[in-house]
Design goal:
By secondary structure, this protein is an alpha/beta fold. The protein has helices at residues 2-20, 27-35, 39-57, 96-108, 126-139, 154-163, 177-183, 190-203, 220-233, 259-272, 282-287, 291-297, 310-313, 329-342; strands spanning 60-63, 65-70, 113-118, 144-148, 167-169, 206-213, 237-242, 302-303, 346-348. It has 14 helices and nine strands. The strands form two sheets. The protein has a six-stranded parallel sheet with strand order 2-3-4-5-6-7. Strands 8-1-9 form a three-stranded parallel sheet, with helices on one face. α1 crosses α3, α2 (27-35) packs antiparallel against α10 (259-272) and α9 packs parallel to α10. The protein starts with a helix and ends in a 22-residue tail after the last strand. Bound molecules: 5'-deoxyadenosine, iron/sulfur cluster and FE2/S2 (inorganic) cluster. Residues 73, 75, 77, 80, 82-83, 119-120, 150 line the site of iron/sulfur cluster.
Length: 370
């Protein structure tokens, strides 16, 4: 009977999954799982990751409203369309009033987390950012606020936290220093990136690290280092997406990362940091029409639909063919909700804090000046 077959399937997966969870996998085991294209092994891996996610979050999938507030960037990462050296894109900045209007739209749609993301744009100095953070938290005190503005000195991060920001996303991009050197110009360093992540954690932010999969020059060994770094840092959030070429960058003619590799890394990140918040990223949905649903089934539990004004969506071109650039905030909100339900999960419009969250803590030390 049908139900018998499916429950036997579950039993089988449960047995196999136990081999993957609850104990530290060796480097050799991880390298095998990073690279395997065996459908049975991948099924086992995704099922094991799905069960670990369920222990901490059940079937819940949390929503974040993404506001891409500046496409200016002073950096020159070789993979990214927003790099300073790309003269071909039209740049924009949202005004504080426009950012607040996005939050109001998001609030109407039920969002309880806003993510302010941008390039590293010195125009938005600490004062401007703290002003925007305070204004958002004043109007939406129940909502969580995530920042993603790149590397800043510790004092800046402290000011943002004190103004009310709750979380900070800063992907490390690759935990292999030599690989980092091939993806970034010499003035950028993995050591500095890691240092920022550690400072952010100490200050009290829920912190998101993360990396691209299938990026140029990446080897399975690089991805092993990413997993080991996740185990060491224990970030509250892990953003993973396939590399996708952007034509006007030095990596414009490289090929995109594969869907399977991205899914395996989502699953392995779930096993490495069981209670992490892991988004089914837009890049996943860009390389495959059902990429985000498959990521949820491989252990992800967050989606980040776009709240940016429609007239600037196409300009935030990290990579080519990005999805949702023509869609209204409301359209994305309801589209993704339907997709989550169809995939068997439960969309939840709550703050969606990390499972171990016990409330905002005062940062250690006396470094926060009035
Ligand atoms: N393909 C996929 N992801 C990219 N990002 C930047 N450029 C690309 C690309 N070409 C990711 C980086 C960055 C995040 C905001 O977008 O990981 O941290
Ligand atoms: Fe700037 Fe971030 Fe793009 Fe690098 S990845 S160029 S820091 S927006
Ligand atoms: Fe944006 Fe489907 S999520 S249109």
């Amino acid at each position: 009977m049908h139900s018998d077959v499916s429950s036997r399937g579950d039993e089988k997966n449960r047995g196999a999954g136990e081999k993957l969870t609850g104990k530290k996998l060796t480097d050799a085991q991880l390298l095998h799982l990073i690279t395997t294209e065996d459908p049975g092994e991948m099924r086992e891996l995704f099922a094991a990751a799905g069960r670990v996610r369920e222990v901490h979050y059940g079937k819940a999938v949390y929503f974040r409203g993404l506001i891409e507030f500046t496409s200016f960037c002073k950096n020159n990462c070789y993979y990214c369309g927003l790099r300073k050296g790309n003269a071909k894109i039209e740049r924009y900045r949202l005004s504080p009033e426009e950012i607040l209007a996005c939050c109001r739209m998001g609030d109407t749609l039920g969002y309880k987390t806003f993510v302010l993301q941008g390039g590293e744009d010195p125009f938005f100095d600490d004062e401007k950012i703290t002003g925007i953070v305070s204004a958002i938290k004043k109007e939406f005190p129940e909502s969580a606020l995530t920042l993603s503005l790149g590397e800043r000195p510790r004092e800046s991060y402290e000011r943002f936290f004190r103004a009310g920001a709750d979380r900070y996303l800063l992907r490390h991009e690759t935990a292999d220093p030599a690989h980092y050197g091939k993806m970034h110009p010499p003035e950028m360093s993995l050591a500095e990136r890691k240092n920022c992540l550690r400072e952010l954690k100490k200050i009290g932010f829920q912190v998101g690290a993360g990396f691209m999969t299938g990026s140029p020059f990446q080897t399975p060994g690089c991805l092993l280092q990413d997993l080991r770094f996740m185990e060491e840092l224990q970030p509250e959030m892990i953003g993973i997406g396939p590399f996708i070429p952007q034509a006007d960058t030095p990596f414009g003619s490289q090929s995109a990362g594969s869907l399977n590799l991205a899914l395996r890394m989502v699953a392995l990140a779930r096993l490495a940091v069981p209670a992490a918040l892991i988004p089914a990223t837009t890049a996943m949905g860009t390389i495959a029409p059902d990429g985000r649903e498959l990521a949820l089934k491989a252990g992800a539990n967050v989606v980040m639909p776009n709240l940016s004004p429609q007239n600037v969506r196409k300009l935030y071109a990290l990579y080519d063919n990005k999805i949702c650039t023509g869609d209204e905030a409301a359209a994305c909100r309801f589209c993704i909700e339907g997709r989550i339900r169809s995939a068997g999960f439960e969309p939840l419009m709550c703050r969606g804090d990390w499972a171990g969250f016990t409330g905002r803590k005062t940062p250690p030390g006396n470094t926060l000046k009035k």
